[in-house]
Design brief:
The chain is an alpha/beta fold. It is built from 7 helices and 6 strands, in the order βαβαβαβααβαβα. The protein has a 6-stranded parallel beta sheet, sandwiched between helices. The radius of gyration is 18 Å and the shape is globular. The protein starts with a strand and ends in a 12-residue tail after the last helix.
Length: 238
C-alpha cells in the first residue's frame, strides 16, 4: 500500500517525515515536492491547482499498478481531491481513500487575498497559523528564498474554484483541528458533498497545524482506514 502525501502552501515533502517513520514499512509514503523549493528550487513555480494536479498525476503513473491512497493537508487536500478526480478515470481506478486534512470542502470558497499581501503581512499570516517558529522568517535572505513559493501556493489555492456538483468515487476521511482559524468543523463536514463513497470527520485538539501533536494518532487512523496492521515488533534473537 502506498500513501501519496501532498504538503500545505509553502510546505515541502520533508513535512511528512514523521508520518513516514510511523507508517513504515507497511505503508510506503510518497511525499510530493512542489516545484520551486528545496531540491527543486531552480524549477519555475506553478500558480494553478489544475496544472499542479496534472503534473502530480503524471508523476504518479509509475506507481499506478497498485492502490494509491492520498493524504493532503490544507492546500494539499485540495490537490488531493483534484488528483483523485484524475486517478479515478485511469487504469488503477479510484484511490482507496482520500485523507483531507485542515481544509474546508472544495465548494466552500472564501474571498481570500493573502497572495496579494506585502512580505511583512504574508509572514505575519504564516506565523499566525503556527506552522513556522516565530521569527524564523526575519532573515531577509531566507525570506527571498521562501516567500516566492509561499505566495505562488497561496495564489493557486485562493484562485481555485471547484466546478459545481463535482464528486469523486473515493471515501474521504476529513481531519481537522478544533481551533483551526481557517476551517470550521461545519466546513470540514461539507466534504460529504464531494464524494459518492461516503465520508467521516475526525476532530483533533489544536489549530491549523494540529498534526504536530497528533502524528501517531493520524498514523493509526490511516492504518485503520486502509486496513493495514502495524508492523510487528522484532522478536528475540539468538
Amino acid at each position: 500500500m502506498k500513501l501519496v502525501c501532498l504538503p500545505h502552501a509553502g510546505g515541502s515533502a520533508g513535512f511528512y517525515l514523521p508520518l513516514s517513520e510511523l507508517l513504515g514499512p507497511g505503508i510506503e509514503v510518497l511525499a510530493i515536492q512542489y516545484p520551486g523549493r528545496q531540491d527543486r528550487w531552480h524549477e519555475p513555480l506553478v500558480e494553478d491547482i489544475g496544472t499542479l494536479a496534472d503534473r502530480i498525476t503524471a508523476a504518479l503513473r509509475p506507481w499506478t499498478g497498485g492502490p494509491l491512497a492520498l493524504f493532503g493537508h490544507s492546500m494539499g487536500a485540495v490537490l488531493g481531491f483534484e488528483v483523485a478526480r484524475r486517478l479515478q478515470d485511469g487504469p488503477a481506478g479510484p484511490p482507496p481513500v482520500l485523507f483531507a486534512s485542515g481544509r474546508r470542502a472544495p465548494s466552500r470558497t472564501r474571498n481570500e487575498r493573502v497572495h496579494l499581501l506585502g512580505d511583512d503581512d504574508l509572514v505575519a499570516e504564516i506565523e499566525a497559523l503556527q506552522g513556522t517558529a516565530p521569527g524564523a522568517l526575519a532573515d531577509p535572505e531566507l525570506r527571498e528564498l521562501v516567500l516566492p513559493g509561499v505566495r505562488a501556493d497561496y495564489r493557486a489555492v485562493e484562485t481555485y474554484r471547484c466546478p459545481p456538483g463535482v464528486t469523486v468515487d473515493v471515501p474521504v476521511t476529513v481531519l481537522v483541528g478544533d481551533s483551526d482559524p481557517r476551517v470550521s468543523v461545519a466546513e470540514a463536514e461539507a466534504w460529504s458533498e464531494h464524494t459518492t463513497a461516503g465520508s467521516s470527520v475526525q476532530v483533533f485538539p489544536g489549530g491549523h497545524f494540529y498534526l504536530a501533536e497528533a502524528w501517531a494518532e493520524i498514523a493509526g487512523r490511516i492504518r485503520r482506514d486502509l486496513a493495514v496492521a502495524p508492523a510487528a515488533a522484532p522478536g528475540p534473537t539468538g
